[in-house]
Amino acid sequence: MPRNACLECRRNSGLDVGTGTASEILREGELTQTLVLLYFQNFHDIHFMFDQTIFLRRFALGDIPKVLLYAIMALGIRYSHAPFQNPHLRPHWGEPLYHQARQLLKEDFDHPSLTTIQVYVLLATYNLTFGGARKAWMFLSFARSFVAILKLDKPASDMDPVQAELCRRLIATIILMENTFPPSLGLARSLPPISPLPQLYSEEEFDIVKSSAFAYPNNRSSMPSPLPCVTQEILILSGIYYRVCQLFRESDTQQFAPLQHKLSDWNTSLHPSLAYTQANLETHQQKFTLRSFMYMHLLYAYIWQLTLFDSLDWTLSGSSDADNGSTLLIHQHASATTSIIQQVWSLAHLDLHNACFGQMIKTAQVILTYLLLTTTEPRVMATAQSQLLVLRDCLIRVKAHCRLYNWVFDQAEWFLRIVNQADFKFHQNSQRWKSILQFQVMSLGTSYERLDYETAGRSSGLESLADAESLEQHRKEQIPTILTPSYIAERHVRVRTGGS
Q1: Which residues contact 367 (CB under 8 A, 6 or more apart)?
Q2: pTM (2 d.p.)
Q3: Cβ atoms of residues 165 and 172 within 8 Å
Q4: What is the distance between the alpha carbons of residues 278 and 346, in angstroms, rounded to a whole number?
Q5: How many CA atoms, within 13 angstroms, populate the side-chain half-sphere of residue 164?
Q6: CA-to-CA distance for 472 and 110, rounded, in angstroms?
Q7: H or E element: which one contains 127?
Q8: What is the pLDDT of residues 173-227, one digit of tens each?
Q9: What is the spatial distance between Cα 412 and Cα 416, in angstroms, rounded to a whole number?
Q10: What whole-number distance in Å separates Cα of residue 358 and Cα of residue 41?
Q11: Whole-angstrom Cα distance, residue 55 to residue 380?
Q12: More confident residue, 7 or 418
């Protein structure tokens, strides 16, 4: 595996890349390779369609189509330390490369090929993370249609094992993106889900296949004892997640029980090498699979939180439901989310930034906020507040690269301000509050009309509930009061004097 891409970036500090146009970047071959490395480093939790070793070998031989290169660099450039002009516009650095890739794609936009599918997936990811979700869905639908036309999900039995695995990984990438697409949009799939799921090699198995030293079977399912594969587990969880989101939107909580059993069975059968332990964290860091390992466990915790979300009683009548089994469980999974984020950051300075991660953070934030508002125990208050601060710090880090997270952060801040307003009332049976909660948990930015760094992606929903004090605090970008030490101190006084 090539060395850490961030170290490569620091070597590029003397490059003359001007404003970062496509031509200026391609003029510097070393920077081009760095941006490719940054793509692999930052997107392998959701993209499996390329093998880094094979790709870099083809890149060195000049065998990568420009349209593919531009699309990859558009994703990787936001994590570069190269001396571009206007560094505060980092979240927009990929625009010239993205538009150049779109321009080149026009020649083959209706020509089904492996490269065209890959480019559509890359552009869909760019739009979903940095642009607009509806356009992303359009590109992803094109990719899915081309897979069906080329019958890539039914490869020939005599196909080269390496090429067959890359096809399976491309299909797996599309399946994951379809299953985890922002559910609030309610966009219908143009084709039925791909079934059965492709059976992927683990990285160790694929390394053996690529070495050609052994005659490995073309299909992993025919192997006597396949090794555990993080990507395969993510695919399984994404299918459960897709179904849970359908039921969540329909408020059909009675159907969650079978899915909760599936989650429990999945966790019970998980290979010990994939369990969340400190030893496994360090092992996956060494294997360069920590991002995928982190995503797998966050997705598991997130799905549990969605299935238990209705167990929260937002009447806040003063009676604690801390002893309720479902409430305890949902708090545990929200706490696990913050613990994973904090541990991985401490270990490897790594954050996720895919669209699903934004929903994970907002959901955990709502649950931990509920705990902070309802508990009367000082220790629990302090723990919940510190966990909320972990989530907030993470959003601040991520939004420096992904402009989608300007919107996620903004939405999260408004929620924290509103729930602490003295005149704000919660009603469990209030349709308005239920819709607000569902919006907070399920929605993400869908389009960006402006490229201004400060305003791109701002929403206009939750602000309508803000009072004058909240509006002024938000204008000054002050930390929400509920996250300050004074909030805990005031709550302690109210508890001691018999207040709520």
Answers
A1: 305, 309, 312, 330, 331, 334
A2: 0.89
A3: no
A4: 12
A5: 19
A6: 51
A7: helix 114-130
A8: 999 999 999 887 778 888 889 989 999 999 999 988 888 655 556 666 556 578 8
A9: 6
A10: 19
A11: 49
A12: 418
